[in-house]
Amino acid sequence: MLAMPEPDRAVLARRAEIIAALRKIAPGEGVIDGERERRAYECDALTAYRQTPMVVVLPETTAQVIDILRYCKANAIRVVPRGAGTSLSGGALPLADGVLLGMSKFNRIVEIDVADRCVVAQPGVTNLAVSHAVQGHGLYYAPDPSSQIACSIGGNVAENSGGVHCLKYGLTTNNVIGVEFVTIDGEAIRLGGKHFDSGALDLLGVLVGSEGLLGVVTAVTVRVLPTPPGARALLIGFPSVRGAADCVAAVIGSGIIPGGMEIMDKLAIEAAEAFVHAGYPLGAEALLIVELDGCAAEVDHLVARVEKIAADHGAASCRASQTEQERLLFWAGRKAAFPAVGRLSPDYLCMDGTIPRKEIGAVLLRMKQLEAKYGLRVANVFHAGDGNLHPLILYDANKPGELERAERFGDDILRLCVEVGGVLTGEHGVGVEKRDLMDVMFDEIDLAQQQRLKCAFDEANLLNPGKVFPRLCRCAELGRMHVRGGALPHPDLPRF
């Protein structure tokens, strides 16, 4: 059973008083306190875990966010920030004694700066809306999670989201150049701006991917890129997953960096084809989708090179898109793979671990062995170019013990990722899903250092507690110093 922080009975006893105070800060429809209405916020996309929040607040201005956080800090009330709720790691799982701070009303694009090739957006703006806003200028926003039609830019910052085109163009952290956020003390801080890099500490890099533990994002400045003059996609079918994995390493090793490079196994191929009818090779054990972009001559040259590499690695079929419509159809199957797999089983867990490319074949083979061990099927859909796996473990929550078995299966997959030199997460974040596996990847000293950083921003541990760290520690515990012989260690160093 997932353990979360024990509800503070004193806070719950003051619920009516807290709601009244929050209504003064966010009047009108800014506070949701009805039981039925609060249930809409009881989970994010990791639906296996649910908890109705004490109250939901939907601010509209930065000033309201500041006042809400100041009130919560003064009254020792926990706060869980929430974007669009598409997180797959339980990052926005509410607390029974906490304020769920929804940022959906922050949904405006503040500025489009074509000269500096950047966009300033509020955190509730959807990922795809940024590209739509600038497409008339021949620009687009590169990170493209499968949920880009719904997921918000603020949530992308919290989780450092990726997507199928992040192999060449980078994840969220590589495309965000400025952030405004509010600390639990109610202080608005701006990091970065319309320029690249800073001579100071890289606090922007710290904030991106911090999963709502350090502050609440109220504005994001992202860089936008010129739309490539052309692009073609290849559908390459292989008689084995190992052949597709080896082809991935060979393409990258040849010096080609595709715009996107994805693998789907047989189960995922069949589900996506039945859902979208993209023309996927149903007889293949694995499908490799490779996109090359650039000017027409460059793209045609790269397509020919990749076709040759694929043939050398035993490809059974290879089909290149001839029109833009066909290219988009190739990708439509991949983008719809998660809902398509949902037709195969009542429930599934979508895992997220990253491994070295050269280990893809071996890891997928071990995964097959784990399928037999746990008696559950897995559909694999993942970002092959950067080794970011997304195994979908199929189960039925209505059958006693299947969820727990699926979770143990997922834990073993993530342990395997670390074992072969990879990491626990590539883009979904740690949240609650991987929280209790953090000590598989980090030792006690590593985790303590990370928690000290959390304490520097949120000493009382009020922002999104119960996420990321496997053990709840008070900041005072982490800051303890041992006195020996009547003196602190290194007495010559200044103390802050």
Task: Give an overview in words.
The chain has helices at residues 9-13, 15-25, 35-38, 62-74, 127-134, 153-159, 166-169, 172-175, 203-207, 241-253, 266-276, 296-312, 324-335, 337-341, 360-374, 402-419, 438-441, 444-457, 475-478, and strands at residues 31-32, 55-57, 78-82, 98-102, 109-113, 118-121, 139-140, 176-182, 188-192, 216-223, 225-226, 230-238, 260-265, 286-294, 317-320, 347-350, 353-354, 378-383, 388-389, 391-395. The mean pLDDT is 93. Helix content is 35%, strand content 19%. With 496 residues, the protein is α+β, with helices and mostly antiparallel strands. A hairpin with a 4-residue loop joins strand 5 and strand 6 (118-121). It has a 7-stranded antiparallel sheet with strand order 15-12-14-13-18-20-16, with helices on both faces. It has a 5-stranded antiparallel sheet with strand order 5-6-10-8-9. It has a 4-stranded mixed sheet with strand order 1-2-4-3, with helices on one face. 48% of the residues are buried. It is built from 19 helices and 20 strands. Helix 10 (241-253) crosses helix 12 and helix 10 packs antiparallel against helix 15 (360-374). The chain is globular and about 70 Å long. The longest helix is centred in the last third of the chain and has 18 residues, at 402-419.
